[in-house]
Amino acid sequence: MTDLLLDRYQEIVGEDVVNNLRQLAEPLRGTKVVHVNSTREGGGVAEILHRMIPLKQELGLDPSWEVIVGDAEFYQCTKYMHNTLQGNRFEIPQPLLRRYEEINQENAERLRRQLEEADFVFIHDPQPALLLNWCPERRGKWIWRCHIDVSRPYRPVWKYLRSYVEPYDASIWSLAEFAQPLYHPLYLIRPSIDPLSEKNIELQDSELQEVLERFGLDPDRPIIAQISRFDRFKDPLGVIQAFRLAKTFTALQLVLAGGGATDDPEGEEVLAEARAAAMDEPDIHILLLPSDAHRTINALQRISDIVVQKSTKEGFGLTVTEAMWKGKPVIGGEVGGIRLQVHNHHTGFLVNTPEGAALRIRYLLTHRDKVEEMGQKAHKFVLENFLITRHVREYLTLMVAILKGTEERIELQ
Ligand code: UDP
Description:
The protein is of the alpha/beta class. It folds into two domains: 4-192 and 387-403, Glycogen Phosphorylase B (Rossmann fold), CATH 3.40.50; 205-385, Glycogen Phosphorylase B (Rossmann fold, 3-Layer(aba) Sandwich), CATH 3.40.50. It has helices at residues 5-13, 15-25, 44-58, 72-85, 94-117, 155-165, 205-214, 236-247, 267-278, 294-303, 318-325, 338-341, 354-366, 368-385, 388-404, and strands spanning 32-37, 62-67, 120-124, 141-145, 170-173, 186-188, 223-227, 253-258, 284-288, 306-309, 330-333, 348-351. A six-stranded parallel β-sheet has the order 2-1-3-4-5-6, sandwiched between helices. The protein has a six-stranded parallel β-sheet with strand order 9-8-7-10-11-12, with helices on both faces. The longest helix has 24 residues, at 94-117. The radius of gyration is 21 Å and the shape is globular. The two termini are 28 Å apart. The site of uridine-5'-diphosphate (UDP) has 16 residues, from helix 3 and helix 11.
């Protein structure tokens, strides 16, 4: 087997796709690209960056990934910001905002040389968004990459943040409806999963068996699972309610698995709420996983009959993509990026209530042929739309377009 990532991707997506990546990367050879986010572990952004950096490197760019470091007040502020940008109405206390600004300034001082020398800086989400403000000598292009659903933000918070993201050269959004009016160019790029990652590679049956045994799951009764950080927008309580309703019709086990993200201070509270709602019911398995439990999550998704992602807000929902790649139909909340992936009645079902989710669980468990058929469509849909190769192609295209945007004709070798 070859060590080159590109050769291995080629086996999955074909030669043309990989040749196209090489062509697009050629004019960007040696380009210094810095990505900055707020956590190395936990959540979709870290998941993507772990996989994207080595691929960009193999394509001849000079990529790096930095993480801003904050304190408890900073993460409290950015969690409030996350929640309010996704629609909660809440006034963020001024002292927390000042801390948010100070931490960004401190991190800008620490990273300034690298950021100011980069050809491209991609700043992910609101946490590090203020870095640009303290990098006055920057020479490259700065792009704000917003991963969350800002379609109906709490206006005062968006107004505050907008003043800091407006000076960026461009911004990237996951869905057109999330994008807010800004004076710079706005781009639309969907996230992706990596089929070669531990999270998504094929696993041996023996490994699946081991995971079933480790968590005391019964292989003879259906398993439904939601894999998510314990976050209220992921609605773990709604999933428990749906499970209880569906269980009145058929034998069933529920897995709610998730770990914390270092930048998410609310996780423990939501986990405690989920445990209380589960009331020690033996068929509800609440699993708190370490941040590197990628193979375990892979196995849990594979041993599940149905994967649920009952979010009430969702930027994209990589857990949905991961499950679909494994040929699982997904019952997902009819929100944000889940709607891009779950095509109702084709790759899964979109639901708005626990009752709706319970009905769909019941339907699928009594129509096994549908589980199979939808799962196959789901896998194909991800293959065609949501793999890392498509994602990197769009990033490269964006960089080429920004660098050479004034040229009438761009020749690729
Ligand atoms: N994830 C993980 N461990 C967990 C929970 C989630 O590794 O305990 C991963 C999950 O497999 C997915 C990502 O974190 O790759 C979550 O991304 P998503 O877009 O679904 O949600 P986010 O957490 O970014 O809101």
